[in-house]
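Lab notebook, bench 4. We co-purified these components, and the gel suggests they stay together. Before we commit to crystallization screens, I want a quick structural picture of the whole thing.
Request: model the full complex, all chains together.
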Amino acid sequence: MASLKIKAIALSLVLLSTLLGIWEVLNQPPPASEALTEYEMMMGGADQESRVPPPSKVLVHAWNELSNPFYDAGPNDKGIGIQLAYSLYRVLTGYFAAALIAIPLGFVTGMSPLMFKALNPYIQILRPISPLAWMPLALFIIKDSEQSAIFVIFICSIWPMLINTAFGVANVRSDWIRVAQTHELGAIRTAFTVILPAASPTILTGMRISIGIAWLVIVAAEMLVGGTGIGYYVWNEWNNLDLNSVIFSILMIGLVGMLLDMALAMVSNLVTYQE
Amino acid sequence: MSKGFVSVEQLSKHYPDAKQKSDLVVFDNVNFYIKKNEFVCIIGHSGCGKSTILNALAGLEQPSGGVIIMDEQEVSGPSLDRGIVFQNYSLLPWLSALQNVNFGVRARWPDWDKQKIEQHSLNYLEMVGLSSSVHRKPSQLSGGMRQRVSIARAFATRPKLLLLDEPFGALDALTRGNIQDELIKIWTESQQTVFMITHDVDEAILLSDRVLLMSNGPHAHIAESVKINLSRPRSRGEVIEDPAYYKIRNYLVNFLVSRSNERKIKDAADASHPIEIDPVALASDEQLATPNQPVLVTVNQ
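Here is the predicted assembly.
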């Protein structure tokens, strides 16, 4: 097993350096020594083709940004840490608000076939709506761009949690329910000591899907509402034509998304049981 | 007839049949009793409704007709007075062996403190020979060990009636033998009243005081109640030395192989109560070969 791990790491590094090498080589600026054409002189020495910054420049930029992530020099110039913190705040607020509603509602839906049948049509209609489609309505009703972004996160994270909770609760093995019955447990104790632990792996799967979607959606939402956040940051740096920052923030979005997923995977491991 | 600790009267179960006008009757006219501290096994072919009877005794399933009375009260729903051991163990997989037993003990005595609950559970786990692996999850235990936990959980709540639904059906013969010994031991100590379903004739003889024989369904009923007249304590090794053992065994096997299919074996006498039989007291093997003879058969009631 150890040797497989080492091989995998080695292969990853080879792939990484190959890709970065190609990227680096293909995006070198033209040699400065070459004489400029007349056209280039007219254009102030600028090159016709646009070039993506090479990884060496992105890495230097990343180092500079990460060594001072929390500086604040006005609305157009905040550290990456501040932007990510804004996004995380919105995502987590919307996400936990959704969990607070989705999990109890999913529980009731899963336990009662009547509730399931009654709610299912609404869930099926509301679920496929792109969360960003709610944005205009949210802005009109809430009249606050910050809270509208949180609402969009709320609405996109509620469905996977609701559906998975209902599914997990409805499919608790009847043997375990019978154990609760023969031990004369009341409804509340059955819910907490038997159904909840039995369904929690499924519930956690729903929560993990939700956090992934929420992190996808926040970038787009912040591009729309502007002001702060990592989504706004990407778009703002694009307007600034700072491609270094754009690439750097794309990587940071991926990194934070991965960390969020890993955190939920760890919680999920805690409640997973083997039959 | 003296009413037992548990008495089942006119129990029946039928399911509506879409194609036919009449319902599909699994069993009807099921009457039997269980005395206090008695170990009763029920044997019958698959589909005759044994499990339904057990679930009705547990209060988990509603019979279509008839009543079950235990300790002078009608059984109307699940209760801690009736403990169950299922064939598939039904342990909660996220709890350790000890926590699974604690679960039952806490439900039974909610006002006990944590230490008392745990001590009580540990005693019962020790009784089934599991004291060394109490902190393991069911997935880390073998099938036999899981069933031991399940038995410990059921005994630990000290129910008035213990229901065992083919508890050893999924186990290999060696493990089954060992747990049968454990069961005899723990039953002797606790003097529980037990009702058990089994497919294994030897198991029934080894464990029980009485074996109820069920005829085949549909319209199944309890045809005979066979007394297991062997001295206790019994052990697997010694019991087979007893000549009476084979008399009983032959009688039971003979019923299952050739007679369980006969319609209403005891129609003439009384349709409602099983015939009580003591095979040891039967004169010779001849009667076993010609079962329709009602010789030496005492009709109850």
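The longest helix of chain B spans residues 173-190. Worth comparing against the SEC data before the next meeting. Residues 15 and 24 of chain B are 5 Å apart (CA to CA).
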